[in-house]
Design a protein that fits this description.
Blueprint (H helix, E strand, L loop, with lengths): L6 H8 L4 E2 L1 E7 L2 E7 L2 E6 L2 E8 L4 H8 L1 E6 L5 H8 L4 H5 L4 E3 L5 E3 L4 E13 L2 E13 L7 E3 L2 E2 L1 E2 L5 E2 L6
Antiparallel strand pairs: 1-11, 2-3, 2-6, 4-5, 5-10, 6-9, 7-8, 9-10, 11-12, 13-14
């Protein structure tokens, strides 16, 4: 293989790694912003710190960098429609229209019915290609409803069969 890896080949390769699905939200003034993210991970327990990877061109990214705050909502397996909604390129008003939510202590959107939500203050921001790697210290959290996580694999949503078994989609042609 060439030293230059093409983005479509890299995307297919990364698709072999199943990930959970979350919605990252932010707020500036009276407007909510949000996007679907599967690049989210725990970085540290002391202090509790997470990392989200956001595209440079997402309308939420500059809001998070300006306000220094964001929330992460972990989606349940039955919340695929929320994932699809927040993955769309649409106005923020359209994304949040009819979505049931409540607010964290600082006014960030925590989506109702998720596995849980955290709120963070930005502690670091790094450019990485066409993305920003944003580190956040967790300042508030809530455990949500019990359920199975929404999982993304090979460009599609996986189907949890039970807490012990997940059906991963076969490779597409």
């Amino acid at each position: 293989m060439s030293a230059d890896v093409e983005p479509p080949a890299f995307r297919r390769w990364m698709g072999r790694w199943p990930t959970g699905v979350s919605v990252v939200t932010a707020r500036e003034g009276e407007r909510d912003f949000g996007l679907t993210v599967n690049a989210f991970l725990s970085v540290s327990l002391e202090p509790p710190t997470v990392l989200v990877s956001l595209t440079e061109d997402a309308n939420s990214t500059p809001v998070i960098l300006r306000t220094g705050r964001f929330a992460v909502n972990l989606l349940r397996a039955d919340q695929e429609s929320l994932s699809r909604r927040f993955a769309q390129v649409a106005t923020t008003d359209t994304k949040f229209e009819g979505v049931m939510l409540h607010r964290d202590p600082n006014g960030l959107a925590w989506l109702d019915g998720t596995l849980g939500a955290i709120s963070c203050t930005v502690t670091a921001d790094h450019r990485a290609g066409d993305h920003r790697l944003i580190l956040g210290k967790v300042v508030a959290l809530e455990s949500g409803s019990d359920g199975l996580p929404l999982i993304f694999y090979r460009g599609r949503y996986a189907e949890p069969e039970s807490t012990e078994r997940v059906h991963l989609p076969p490779p597409s042609g």
